[in-house]
Design a protein that fits this description.
By secondary structure, this protein is an all-alpha fold. The chain is 67% helix and 0% strand. Bound molecules: ligand 1PZ.
């Protein structure tokens, strides 16, 4: 099918962006392991939004929730050049978990990235898994423990409106074979990024149980 000249599919662009992030983190290994730039990170995270379009209207709320948090972080990138500066500032003002804090938004965006990773893993684990099953199980594991009852209820209602596997592939302009390659690339590249973010919190004595 047709794609924009010079650009890959939505998922391949996501995978590219996260491979670049994970390379940046790796090359940073022997320097202070704190230097991922907020702007670069947000640019990669905003590519994830294209997935939402393929999920249908039921996930409009999730999309708004995710993209607004990425946008708020991106808007702050002129003030806080790196992820670690965001967290250091909230530590200083004791606002790490406060309602509108950027450190809290970063934690939620990280959970979104992990949700997608888990979903892709489930999706590839067996052809018999419907998108709804793959997504429900990923949500239950990664996000549900931190969501209110009302949100969990809305999400499980929304799950019923997810497209089928085949419809998702059509919406994404992928085949079984191509989507497997791209999802595997994202799974592999996102993991070190997620771990890197977690480490920014734990290194400052912030637990990850929220
Ligand atoms: C094919 C992919 C199917 C994936 C389906 C995943 C559905 C996840 C639905 C998540 C709904 C989130 C609703 C809002 C939750 C908010 O209460 C929390 C807490 O916010 P806070 O109190 O800190 O302000 N927000 C979040 O946890 C943000 C999480 C966003 C998760 C976005 C999912 C991104 C991935 C979707 C795949 C495209």
């Amino acid at each position: 099918e047709f794609e924009d000249a010079g650009e890959g599919s939505a998922i391949s662009m996501m995978a590219d962006a996260f491979e670049e992030l994970s390379d940046l983190i790796k090359n940073n290994g022997n320097k202070k392991n704190d230097e991922l730039r907020l702007k670069v990170f947000c640019d990669a995270c905003s590519l994830v939004s294209v997935l939402f379009g393929s999920l249908g209207l039921a996930f409009k709320f999730a999309e708004m929730e995710y993209t607004s948090k990425v946008r708020d972080l991106a808007d702050a990138a002129e003030i806080y050049s790196t992820l670690s500066r965001v967290i250091d500032c909230d530590v200083k003002t004791d606002t790490v978990k406060s309602a509108e804090s950027l450190t809290r938004k970063l934690r939620r965006v990280r959970q979104g990235l992990d949700l997608i990773r888990e979903l892709f893993q489930n999706f590839l684990s067996t052809d018999d898994y419907s998108l709804k099953e793959a997504a429900s199980s990923a949500y239950k594991q990664v996000c549900a423990p931190y969501h209110t009852w009302a949100v969990r209820t809305a999400v499980s209602a929304g799950m019923c409106a997810l497209p089928t596997r085949d419809q998702l592939l059509l919406n994404l302009n992928e085949t079984d074979e191509s989507v497997e390659i791209e999802m595997r690339r994202y799974i592999k590249a996102s993991l070190p990024v997620i771990k890197y973010i977690d480490n920014l919190y734990t290194a400052r004595g912030i637990t990850l149980d929220w």
